[in-house]
Amino acid sequence: MTAKTLTIGILETGRPPEALAAEHGDYPAMVARWLAPLEAGFRTHAVLDNAFPDSPDECDLWVITGSRFAVYEDHPWIAPLEDFIRTCRKAGRRMIGICFGHQIIAQALGGRVAKSDKGWGLGVHDYEPCDWPEALGPAPRRISLQAYHQDQVEELPEGARRIARSDFCENAAVWYPGFALTVQGHPEFSRAYASALLQSRRGTGLTPQEADRGLATMDRRPNPEALAELIRTGLHRL
Fold it and tell me: Quick check: pTM over 0.85?
């Protein structure tokens, strides 16, 4: 008897600029490349188009992507997504949240998200593991990820546990015991895509100085593979 293939559902909440998507792919494709070590099957639901799964039981793990939208904006798909998050938790399904996904999971469970007075977090950011739970196995020595955000999780929901931080982003990674692992950074972004995105926003959304600060970090090596390995070996422990 062969082992059951893990099925990962990707909840698409945003899309790359059209000019970049042809070369770099969409966000579900980026997530699938990042989580390739899990040797899983993938299904995508474009929730930003109100295309939701019929049941949380469709997949073993759900991943919520990044987005240019803010979780506190009034879009018709935000409340249904929050409902689905809560339904997944009740059903015992596991979740991973990336950037927007990190924020919407916190908001859905009673946390608070706001635009930070620290401004833009751009380029490669280093996060320090802290209060790391034994249930997740050994803490990585470092967590370095591409970042592209202004909003931050300002207050954690009850029962949530901060497991990585930085001076810029206090709640950089959060663990919801028995349910979810979320990160403010973008483990799915390649250096090429992150650089192209910053270049495309230079002068349109970002000041030249902001874009240049992000681009100046691109020689640093992020380690998103450490998170992929944590998920591969410890999904049942989330």
Answer: yes
DSSP letters for 46-70: -GGGT---S-GGG-SEEEE---SS-
The neighbour count for residue 223, using CB atoms within 10 Å, is: 17
Catalytic site residue from 24, 45, 186, 210: 186
Q: What are the structural domains of the chain?
A: 7-117+127-190+222-237 (3.40.50.880)
99 included as an active-site residue: yes
Radius of gyration of the chain, Cα coordinates, nearest whole angstrom: 17
What would the pLDDT profile of 47-78 be if each residue is shown by its tens digit? 999 999 999 999 999 999 999 999 999 999 99
Q: Which of the following is catalytic: 24, 99, 102, 149?
A: 99
At CA 63, angle to CA 59 and CA 172, rounded to 5? 145
Q: List the structure tokens of 28.
A: 């579900």
The catalytic residue among 12, 45, 188, 210 is 188
Tell me if residue 130 is catalytic: no
| H or E element in which residue 183 lies | strand 180-183
DSSP string, 5-21: PPEEEEE------HHHH
